[in-house]
Amino acid sequence: MSVYRILHYPHVLLRKKSLPVVSFGPDLKTFAEHMTSTMYAFEGIGLAAPQVGILRRFIVVDVKTYLESEDLKDWHGTISLTIDGKPMPLAFPLSLVNPEIVRHEGEVEFPFDGCLSFPGVSKGGTRRYKFIELHAKTVDGKPIVLACDGIMSICLQHELDHLEGVLFIDHLKESADEDEVVEEIHDAEDDPATRKKLKKLKLVDARNEKFSF
Ligand SMILES: [Zn+2]
Fold this sequence. Notes:
Layout: H1 26-41, E1 46-48, E2 58-61, H2 64-67, E3 79-83, E4 86-88, E5 94-110, E6 126-137, E7 143-148, H3 150-163, H4 178-190, H5 192-201
Antiparallel strand pairs: 1-2, 2-5, 3-4, 3-7, 5-6, 6-7
């Protein structure tokens, strides 16, 4: 299983709009597997295709650790999942193809937010919808409906933003200092322990895979 190199801010591709996935073949399934292993290798709770340089509307999420954390009890929320019209028990990781928010209610301010494209950066006060209903497809092309609030809703909104070239720093109540953010990322990149870890992972550039989906 490959682990992809994640693009860091301010990489130009992070600001591009992604195109819909059009082919639900084996390439998409392989990409989904590698995206999932990349998310886990970097200990993220979500990852969007443009973060590895692929401008397609695809995300993976796994908020299980957050849903099990007592400290985040107030953000557990409720999640309902339907696949192909049938209610399903929630299972992670979830791969979502061409996801779109079809309905939203309320607003919340999330006390901390971060992103795998912003290593070493954590900011509080991102404004998000409280509740969302999201429609997407599985990698097999089956329709998925997710209705949720809490951390799952926050995470999905964060990942969907990536497909529009929108980043979490755009949602801060008080705008972040651009130079400070870039400096924090450089510091994290230069950390010897991180460098050692990355070397071990033998990262692959997803853009060299020549996938078609
Ligand atoms: Zn992100």
